[in-house]
Amino acid sequence: MIDGPFFGLVVSGILGTGLVAGVFYGFSTFVMRGLAALPPAQGVAAMNAINVAAVRPAFMVLFVGSAVLSALTAVVTFVVWPGEGKVELLLGSALYLIGSFGLTIVANVPRNERLAGLTPDGPEAGGYWPVYVREWTFWNHVRTVASAAASLLYILALA
Predict the structure, then answer these.
(1) Local confidence pLDDT in tens for the 159 residues of the chain
(2) pLDDT tens digit string along 51-84?
(3) How much is the CA Rg of the chain, to the nearest whole Å?
(4) Burial of 123 (0-12, 13-18, 19+ CB in 10 A)
(5) 144 near 24, Cβ under 8 Å?
(6) What residue numbers bound the domain in which 91 lies?
(7) Which of 39, 52, 107, 154 has a 20 to 30 A CA-CA distance from 98?
(8) Does the keyword Transmembrane helix apply (predicted)?
(9) Do the beta carbons of residue 96 and residue 66 sit within 8 Å?
(10) Residue 59 has what DSSP assignment?
(11) What's the domain count of the chain?
């Protein structure tokens, strides 16, 4: 059984990855739909404002902190090699680190940067906006599932 400080680490990982999954879920289910319904200039301006707000401590501590917790959980799992839950802990850590944190860096952030470089009411922004919404939302769905699955696997490791 996982106990002591390792138990606290796993519980923190459950909370972190679960909260991140919730943020991503909100974006996938209603925020992006609402933004997509706006005229392109308004949608681009709103998403750019959201992307600026997202890199503030309130979200970044949760998002990056969950990546640190996932990495630490993987390392501690290798060192401690618990009798139970090791597969779930390693898979959960990999899912969050690759499917949420890593995917953000390689799929969502580049799209955000491209969008930020466009003038919201310009013709290029109007043409890119529907593509951005479709692609960004797809990758966000993947991040949502990866974060939720990581949280579930951490829970199963404690069961």
Answers:
(1) 788 999 999 999 999 999 999 999 999 999 999 999 999 999 999 999 999 999 999 999 999 999 999 999 999 999 998 889 999 999 999 999 999 999 999 999 999 999 999 999 999 999 999 999 999 999 999 999 999 999 999 999 999
(2) 999 999 999 999 999 999 999 999 999 999 888 9
(3) 18
(4) exposed
(5) yes
(6) 4-158
(7) 52
(8) yes
(9) yes
(10) H
(11) 1
Could you write out the three-class secondary structure of the chain? CCCHHHHHHHHHHHHHHHHHHHHHHHHHHHHHHHHHCCCHHHHHHHHHHHHHHHCCHHHHHHHHHHHHHHHHHHHHHHHHCCCCCHHHHHHHHHHHHHHHHHHHHHHHHHHHHHHHCCCCCCHHHHHHHHHHHHHHHHHHHHHHHHHHHHHHHHHHHHC
Give the residue among 159, 151, 156, 144 at the shortest CA–CA distance from 13: 151
